[in-house]
Amino acid sequence: AALQAAVDATADGGRVVVASWYGSKPVCLELGTRFHRSHMHLIASQVSHIPAAHGYTWTKHRRFGAAWQLIRRVRPARTIPLRTVPLEGAAAAYAALDAGEAIACHLTYDDAGGE
Length: 115
Known about the structure:
Helices cover 37% and strands 14% of the residues. It contains five helices and four strands. The protein has a two-stranded parallel sheet. It has a two-stranded parallel sheet with strand order 3-4.
């Protein structure tokens, strides 16, 4: 559902980066007239390897450095609302994620969590 929503929301000539791994689970996508006429690109992302065309210049050390530099600049922990939930509340946390009531949950293994 999320991948289809991304395809549906992408502008003409846009790019959808599939940053998830579906394993052996089938994915159903509507790739009809709108998709083909839009000239959008579906790109597979794989974080542990990069395309050969960039592999020689973007070493693992350089990639990690760039990622940490971006994290320090953007400081995502300050802007992403994170719910901390004890492990016993995992079912409720996943339900909140599924319902769109939360975008991130951190499960703890002790009872010190809370919202």
